[in-house]
Amino acid sequence: MIRLGSSSTAPAAVAGNDAEMERRVRSLHTRRGDDLYGFALRMGLSDDDAADAVQDVMLRVWHELISGEELLDLDAWAFRVTYRLAMDRHRLHKRVAGSLGRLLSGTVQIAPDPADSAGADAVWRAVDRLPERQRAAVYLRYRADMAFEQIGLAMGITPVAARSHVSTALARLRRQFGQEEFR
User: Fold this and answer.
1) CA 99 to CA 84: how far, in whole Å?
2) What is the DSSP string of 140-176?
3) Which residues are within 8 A (CB) of 86 and not within 5 positions of it... i.e. 6 or more apart?
4) In the chain, what are the domain boundaries?
5) Least crowded by CB within 10 Å, which of 69, 109, 115, 149?
6) Coil, strand or helix: which one is 109?
7) CB count, 10 Å around CB of 92?
């Protein structure tokens, strides 16, 4: 779990710290809200579902802070919750519809990127076709600019496994784009 602290903190002590909790939640939203939204889109959620996921993450952060828990790495925790919400949504769709629908049809929406170009767009479309864990690891590494330790925390895997997912994904993308010599 990505928590450090104790739930023995008295609710009265936490209640007096509402301004600090609000500041932390607002800070997270300001710093990482767009990244969380883009990550949710990359994980196959629709615009509305991605926005709902980000809102749900912020509510969960607030709830964790109110409960007296100290989150060790707030960014990684938020990405992990976003990842889990996206996977829960997919499991629900799979049970209801009997398929992954939008993910398999290839209509995953891409979050706007300031570095948009034809080449970058093609690369991110290729990333969208990677296996789920590789896609998530690449997005967290290169769009959310997270270290492998944070990626591991966010995805519930070790940093070594996170590095392996990124490395495997990059090798696959290099082969796809015929750039094996640029290792």
Assistant:
1) 18
2) HHHTS---HHHHHHHHTS-HHHHHHHHHHHHHHHHHH
3) 40, 43, 44, 45, 53
4) 3-182
5) 115
6) coil
7) 10
